[in-house]
Amino acid sequence: MPGKASLSATNLAVHHHHSCDLYLHNVYHRPPIQGLPQEEPEPQELTEARFRRGIDWEEKLFNWLDAQKLLLTVPSAPMDPTLLYENILADPRDHFFIAGLSFLPPQEIFDRRSREAGKTSVKFSLAKPDLLEIRRTKGRVEWKVLDAKVSSRVKTSHHVQIYFYTMCLAYVLPRDIFSAQGSAAVWLPPPEGFDKSAPSFEHIKSIETALLTSSLDKFFFDKLPDIISAPIEDIKWHYNPQCRGCPYEVDCKAKAVANGELGSMPSISLEDAKTLKGLLRVAADSAEQVVQPQPLTDIEDLHKLFAEPAKLEKLASQFPTMVKRSKRILALPKKGGQQASPVVEASRTQTPQVKFKRNLALPRHEDIAVIMSLVSDYSLASPSIERYTINVISREPLSIPSTMLHGPGFDLVPTLSLLISAIIAVQSTSSPGLATQFYVWSSGELSALQKHLIETALTSSAHEHEIRVCIGALAQGASLLQTAYQPVLLSGALLSFLTNSQRTKAEHVACLQRMGLSSEGSSAELRQRVDEEVRKLQSEAERVPTAKEFGQLPRVVVLQREIENLIALPVPGYWDLPECASALLPDDSLVVLCPTSDEIQSNYRQDRRALDECLVRRNVSIYSVLLDVRKRVTNTRSNLLVNTAKLLSSNFMDLCWQEHIRKLFFVQQFEVLTKLSELWSSRIEGCPDAPVLEYIEPKLGPNGVEHVFRLASGTLNMPTADKGTSMYDKIIVLDEDNGANDDIPVEALFDDLAVSGLVFPLNKYTRSRWAALHPKVQDKLWVADLQNMAVEGNITKVVIHAWGSLGVKFIQGSSYRISPRMVDFNTSKALAALLELDLRWGSAAPADDGVLDTGHRQMPLLQMIMDPSSFGGNTRADELLKTEGTIQKLFRELKDLGVDAAGSLILKSSQHHAAQRTMTNRLSVIWGPPGEHTGLAMRRSIHCGLTFELTGTGKTYTLALSVLRLLDAQHRLGDTTRKIIFVTAMTHAAIDAVRNGLLHLIERYRAIESLPTAWLDRVLVEQVTSGRTHRVPTAGSALVQIYAGTTYQLYNFTKQHPSIQVDCVVVDEAGQLGLSSIALVIRALNNNTGQIIVAGDSEQLAPILSAQYPQLKGRPIFGSVLDCLMYTAQPPPQSLRLEDTLESQGSSIGDGGQAEQAASNVVQLTENFRLNPDLGEFVSTIYSRAFKPQKVQALQLARNLRRIEGLPPPFSPNHSNLGLNASIVQSTQTFLLALSKVMLREPQDVLSPPSYQAPATEPSAAPASASADDAPKAVSLALLRVNADHVRTGPVEDVAYETHVRGEAEVAAALVLVLRRCSPEDDIFVAAPHRVQREAVKAALGRVGRAGRREGAEGEKERGEREAGGDVLIRALGNLRIGAEDEYADTPLRELGKGKVRVDTIERLQGSDASFVICLFSVPKSSLPPDLGFLLERRRLNVAISRAKTLCIVVTSGNVLRPGVGVLAKEDAARGYVFLRAFEERA
């Protein structure tokens, strides 16, 4: 029976979902195989459930559009374009959506394109897009394809479908009438579920089809014809877990087993198969040619290879990463020992095999086993736990109604709480205590349980006690947090509480109730009771923790995962509980008892009683499999199960009562738990993906002995540390194996929490905590701090500081694996601050005038979260505003009289409006909105001032001068009260910028002789570097005290001086700070009169959260301070259209006129002082308003670059003393010279012009020079594309990462070299995403410097002969400490003088600027998957590009500019890619 001989859009999407060429070949040429024996039914119920959910979403969406009068439904028969046009003309609406459309693809055009490409034509079947958006404008019809997808995110398969529909319609619809909008979209349901919320335009995820063209046209007209026309035996395929649900799965499964393919082993992913195929290929290439009677199968080849350890070791020396990964896939030790893979042998012998490695996550025994089966309904709009069954197997009776508990999902938390409480009650009466372990079968069930607990904790006010019990018992690490933090938190918070001797009896009662203590007695007795508890808690906090169990036994074990770690099953592709039971259990009746997922879903729909019986059978099977696995592993020569189950504990820190503070308190703990869980899950496996270092030698560094390693395998990236702090955030152990593969990994024994807040190297006061760790940790583990990474030749050198209890004794030539540890100095501070605020809230007296309590009780943190408008205005706002106007006028007059210093003290128009808001409002927000929050901002109360900030608009200057102007106005009004102002930010660089701005402006004030400045003598500006030791000035020494420091140092400062009450908190870069962090300083703010000035940019780097949190209906308190304050319930649709980025300067918030600004109380800083007009116009595309440039690109730049043309040696390509590749230097010169010709409007044939021409922008300070013909062309955006794809370092790798980084670094160094020669007075930044790139650039520049020093050592005569040439530059570079981190990293560039070069990571450059910025955004093919998501983060791109004042050069590669379609399915990466493409269009 022939196949379809055609492909539908759905077939194309399924192909990208399965990543299987054979699927397309089969669909096109033959139907699914019928009549073959099937071992199991296809999962029809699950498939149908998901299908029903999709249909329900479409129906809900269409009904909603119909109710909005936006829907036109047409007959489903294939429609002629003329008939479609008539339908549209007959509809009077200018904007609507068409449903039911179907049409035949333009097969003739596709055939022609195939012939032109020399390919076989592929036939396509009927196309049926869900929706066609129609907009009628000026007699034309604009259209756009939308597909409704019931998914949480856009996927690659969705993009394939909408692109296919759009490509077809672009040919089908007459172009004289129809115009494509240039984009297509996927319409997703609301995140909270379409059963809870209506559809919204907000959830339309658009993407410009041009972004997909390069990759998908290549697929449609190159790869696809090759797949269809090739013989079936030439089609690459691999049976793997992604094949689940494929109609050809049964056939492929049978072929994989019969042919001994890699797919005959379970859980071998496509990437795993690629690795193993590569290993077999290099093994075959290195083997002697022996004629085999018949070719060996993949399984036999692997078996033979691992039987020859000498050959394997040789391959390991040539391809270390590949061999290491192959061993991990096949459960072999990394070194020596076992020579047969259990995974391979299980497939060969068709019997289960034990994997000989220790297991820390499955207990070898428990007294009480709790087996849970959780059922989710995938047909619902928001799948969640709908039904559960819990079986309890206990050796002691429990006070519960039954050992089999059933119920609906909403009843799960109370049921679990009852069960946990019953177990704990039995534990207390049993000697010894009863060990308990909870089990689920799958990772999906554990994820559903965790989601259920988090959402219940953060969104529901019901079951508060029950959720505390469940989280304490079932959340991994919860009891450890309680043990590690609670004594410190309570003692600190209670001490702050007790410092106020005027506390009422009611306040003491509330405090004691919170701690579970008696609240009976007099006020004095209550205070004494609190005081005694503080002393007790202080004693507990000082107690050295005891060593924990081996590793961290999970609270809830995922049995399927642990069986996969312990047993290799003879099951091809993948397996679930029925297959596992069939392979392991000898009793056939148990196999029959085990239900399939399809049976469970069917019973869920049809018979709940039958479902409960089904789940009981499932739990019985789970427990039977558990017992069998234990028996198998205990019968081996080693006891592989290390841990036993533990006593159950429900301890969890839930100390806060106020709803929002309680959620923030939870989030702080969940962040720690998530980080710990990630570390533990990796350590249990022995950190298989950890980079491996080979020790070279010790050396003496500036801060003691340093240790030099070679990066042998893996990738390592140095974290960015503010102020050069040594965090010792890594642990390092010898990468050895005893051959049996059953040793407990040393990392698994390491207790992060015990030392997470200690400063290394330890001192005599803190060594006791290290001494309490496991002896093996003390003997074999070191903490390490990465000092440097540099590419030298073909290797990457890594330099570290290390500390260990027995000293540092690394063995030369030995390998060590390095992995992260949790470093956390601040969680306890943040939790303590939240607890203290909650205590204050609880003890604050509600209004006694009969008015209902507002909830925030005038506490600034809660006001920010609940109602920012409640801050109100300053009491003397009118007087301050009038006085400020007088000050502004005075400075203008002084400037007109020739007083230069006055010019620095005049605010531009929008800056002046921002300063006025700080005069009138207690809360001012300076921000750079992307547009979606504008509507809310314009509706805000007049008492909640919002000030908009854009990149380079003088935000820091505005902040500093606004504070100073406020102080000046208050002084002029006779205000002599003492004031304390805190200035804080996420980074030291941002804090320094504000502090230095204040100091600079104060000096400008003093420079005006006619001004009375005696009041400035009593303004003290200090930097708080150590809050615990910083002193408070004595009374009378200062009228205004301004303290600048991180939130944590200012917190320590206020803890040391609890009487401090802050009058104003200034927060810069608020988009990087979370609410819990800002609580550290807000706690000291005066509740009644304190003022807050918040500044930030929503398009720059934001806080990184480890866990996923539900979207609340109120303000997003889990993000940054800026996110919370700029919250809006209905932002506009998200678009990924390039044209939206290029033309996004619409007037969505009005024309910016003063009348509108005053009415809406919105001020946007529109003047830009950093960027040239074209660079500013580009960066402003992601903001709501265009910049008003205050500068222009000088003609001198073009003339400076033109100097390249006459440069003598050493810039000649024949000169070899530069230390750089001569051809790269020559190419760089050619590039920059061509750029200068463009600027001078001269012909050149090297650079291609921008494809997008921005509208002309008139700068506010245009040069008063000659005619437009003589004016230079402003060119601030340039792009260099590097290509290293032709380099090959081995038979299976494209480009070594080190090779690519070294080449990229030479390009950057050459650019620096030539730019320094042309413009020696200008500053240069080299912005690198990764520190290894930074070090490579430094090394390249260092080679230039060494060349300069060699030249400087030559004779005077020879040096004199070259003096007129370029050697002056080389010697100058040789004398510079280019990019030395200690010298430049955290010092504002303006303090370094002119002509400096700084090489650093993008995060560390935020807040700085330079004339020239070179951005390194290229990757080799081999590193494409892990790197692109990081590189294409729009905020990171924005930060890097917007550092440039004059010229930004982006160094990138084709892999980044034209990525695969899979990259664009990730929304963050897609938004960044749109931004980068917009740069390319302009460059």
Give a written overview of the molecule:
By secondary structure, the chain is of the alpha/beta class. It contains 54 helices and 36 strands. An 8-stranded parallel sheet has the order 25-26-24-27-28-22-23-29, with helices on both faces. Strands 1, 2, 3, 4, 5, 6 and 7 form a 7-stranded mixed sheet that branches. Strands 9, 10, 11, 12, 13 and 15 form a 6-stranded mixed sheet that branches. Helix 31 crosses helix 35 (955-972). It is globular.
Give descriptors for this structure.
1483 residues; alpha/beta; eight-stranded parallel beta sheet; seven-stranded mixed beta sheet; 36 strands; 43% helix; globular
Write a brief caption for the model.
This protein is α/β, with parallel strands linked by helices and 1483 residues long. 43% of the residues lie in helices and 14% in strands. Strand 9 (368-376) and strand 10 (385-394) form a beta hairpin.
Give helix % range: 40-55%
Structural class by secondary-structure content? alpha/beta
Count of helix runs? 54
Rg calc:
34 Å
Mean pLDDT: 78
Fold topology:
Elements: H1 9-18, H2 21-29, H3 44-67, E1 71-73, H4 81-90, E2 95-99, H5 107-116, E3 131-137, E4 140-148, H6 156-172, E5 178-180, E6 183-187, E7 204-208, H7 209-229, H8 249-258, H9 270-286, H10 298-306, H11 309-318, H12 320-329, H13 342-349, E8 353-354, E9 368-376, E10 385-394, E11 404-408, H14 412-429, E12 435-440, H15 443-459, H16 464-474, H17 478-498, H18 505-514, H19 523-542, E13 556-558, H20 559-566, E14 567-568, H21 577-584, H22 588-593, H23 597-606, H24 608-634, E15 646-647, H25 659-684, E16 692-701, E17 704-713, E18 730-734, H26 752-755, H27 767-771, H28 775-780, E19 781-792, E20 795-803, E21 815-820, H29 827-843, H30 860-866, H31 877-896, H32 900-903, H33 909-920, E22 923-927, H34 934-939, E23 944-948, H35 955-972, E24 979-984, H36 988-1006, E25 1019-1023, E26 1040-1044, H37 1047-1056, E27 1064-1067, H38 1075-1082, E28 1091-1095, H39 1121-1125, H40 1138-1142, H41 1154-1160, E29 1162-1164, E30 1167-1168, H42 1173-1179, E31 1188-1189, H43 1195-1202, H44 1222-1239, E32 1277-1282, H45 1297-1318, E33 1324-1328, H46 1331-1352, H47 1356-1362, ...
Parallel strand pairs: 1-2, 4-5, 4-6, 9-12, 12-13, 22-23, 22-28, 23-29, 24-26, 24-27, 25-26, 27-28, 30-31, 32-36, 33-34, 33-35, 35-36
Antiparallel strand pairs: 2-3, 3-4, 6-7, 8-14, 9-10, 10-11, 12-15, 16-17, 16-21, 17-20, 18-19, 18-21, 19-20
Helix pairs in contact: 1-2, 1-6, 3-23, 6-7, 9-12, 10-13, 11-12, 14-16, 15-16, 17-19, 17-29, 18-19, 21-24, 23-24, 25-29, 29-38, 31-33, 31-35, 33-35, 35-36, 37-38, 43-44, 44-45, 45-46, 46-48, 52-54
